[in-house]
Amino acid sequence: MLEIISLNMYETAALAVVVLFLGLQIKKMIPLLEKYCIPSAVLGGLVISIVNCCFYKAGFVFTTSDSIEKLCMVIFFTAIGFQIDFSLIKRSISTFMILLLGVVVLIICQNALCLFMASTFNFDSLTAFTVGSISMAGGSGITEQFGDFLEDLRLANGKNMSFGICTLGIIVSGLIGGPLGRYLILKYKLKPASEKIYVEKNSDAADANLPFSTKLAKACFQMIFVVGIGSAACDLFATIGASIPYYIGTMLIAIILRNLSIKTGRYTFYTSELNYLGGIGLSLYLAMDFMALALWQLNYINMVQIAVFIAQFVLLMFFVFFIVYIMTGRDYDAAVLSASSIGVGMGGPSSSVATLMVITRKYGSSFKTYLLLPIVGFMLADPINSVIISYFLRLI
Q1: Mean pLDDT of the chain, nearest integer
Q2: Which of 29, 44, 329, 369 could form a cystine bridge with 23, CB 3.0-4.6 A?
Q3: Structural domain of residue 46, as residue ranges?
Q4: Is residue 57 in some structural domain?
Q5: 282-301 burial by CB neighbour count: b if 16+ within 10 A, else e?
Q6: What span, in angstroms and rounded, lies between the C-alpha atoms of 293 and 52?
Q7: Within a domain: residue 285?
Q8: CA 230 to chain centre
Q9: In the prediction, which pLDDT does 393 show?
Q10: How far apart are CA 236 and CA 261, in angstroms?
Q11: Does residue 259 form part of some domain?
Q12: In terms of pTM, does the model score above 0.85?
């Protein structure tokens, strides 16, 4: 019988710090990993996941608390909101529409590819469908939602098979997103033009003489206040049937308040210090997410799934290069958005954000990607995916 050791939120946070330091040490020992933009959280998280998998084989396993993980994600996206102005939103509308349409087309193609391969190579259609948008674009959330339904349709271990592909997708996308972004940036000699927005609009200049500790304390208070207001707004919308994730709601509130402060000039938001807080939150969130990977679920993957997964990988590369990168402008923002989109199509938010973090820390910020990725890739993709999956399941 499997013994489960549940870590509380404090123990989970402590282990996340270990993951980060472990990832940094691995990159120091293997400089090639730093060169090709492999995220530290991915490396450290995989090591802890492998250890946990060994524990699983021995009859016990540890599970982590997701409460602090969600808080860290909220802190990161709230900090992003403090760095986005309305002019950027106006300039991003066309890119938003292209990306949203692209995600819809990708989800449809992922499911159509499963049925095509099942028909062409005489694969079991339900087995092939476990490598569709359920586990690829859907990630763990959609996999949890539809996994039991696959088993109800006669597919034994359908949920575990889907989770196995989801886990594989997170690992692959977490490892290749950074190198792909680096390739595009270096090949086309791209520069982060949007960096100018932050410098010109920064309202911290009037308080430049304040000690860093004072500004950091004020930034903490601002963060706590906005997170509280944003979460309350999300709860209010939930009462009328509109479901908005907390990290989206708090980011939007931060955008509104930050732009009001710029327009009126009556209040200063300490964006540099808020960015520090966001970076800490992001690092911890990624570490917690990757160290929680259940690698033993890979045991449920079979050769049919591997064949379809390879085809899905080729499809995703086509989508990234010819839809996202070319259609969104072939500039620095397009390159970062393309690399981050790998996680959108294969695995979910954690690998997308890990890629975004490692590229922007090395080559410069991409505020357009900060804005569009969570809205299109996380908030809108899941409900669209659920509708499309439900339609395709009727065809099987």
Answers
A1: 92
A2: 44
A3: 3-195+278-393
A4: yes
A5: bbbbbbbbbbbbbbbbeebb
A6: 9
A7: yes
A8: 20
A9: 92
A10: 24
A11: no
A12: yes
